[in-house]
Amino acid sequence: MYYKAFHVNAVANVTTLDGGLVSEVDNPVHVNAIIINSSAHEGNIIECWIGNKRVLEIYDYNLDTQEETAAQAPISANKIGRLPVDLDIKPGAIFKVGSRCGATGHHLYGSYEYTETGT
């Protein structure tokens, strides 16, 4: 099992993607999950892409956050910190994480959890 860190500085009213996890011809990968945390709950939609195909959408409200308010505790027991993906990425393709922001941007911090499937 391998892990590769990512960070997305998501800008208001824009979809921002990270650099991604490249599935190389000599070393294709299988993405098991993403470990993810949002800097705040803003109602933005987290997306995962393989090439130009969106394969995942989830609101940031469902994710764990670093935000500390009286209404929500950080590192909560009822929010997602590890999001299962379970996808083989074809050689030459790139798996990316990003955020489709509304009026307020935020940051995503996390890691790809993956295995190499090549010989």
- Helicity level: under 10%
Helix/strand order, N-terminal first: EEEEEEEEE
Regarding CATH, which class? Mainly Beta
* Largest sheet report: 5 strands, antiparallel
The secondary-structure class comes to: mainly beta
Number of domains: 1
Count of DSSP-assigned helices: 0
Quick description:
The chain is mainly β and 119 residues long. 0% of the residues lie in helices and 53% in strands.
Please give a structural write-up.
The chain has 119 residues and is an all-beta fold. It has one domain: Sandwich (Jelly Rolls). 0% of the residues lie in helices and 53% in strands. It contains no helices and nine strands. Strands 2, 3, 5, 6 and 8 form a five-stranded antiparallel sheet that branches. Strand 5 and strand 6 form a beta hairpin. The radius of gyration is 14 Å and the shape is globular. The relative contact order is 0.42. The mean pLDDT is 90.
Q: What attributes characterize this protein structure?
A:
globular, 9 strands, four-stranded antiparallel β-sheet, five-stranded antiparallel β-sheet
Task: Please render the helix and strand layout as text.
Blueprint lengths: L1 E9 L4 E3 L3 E2 L6 E10 L6 E6 L2 E7 L22 E8 L4 E7 L5 E11 L3
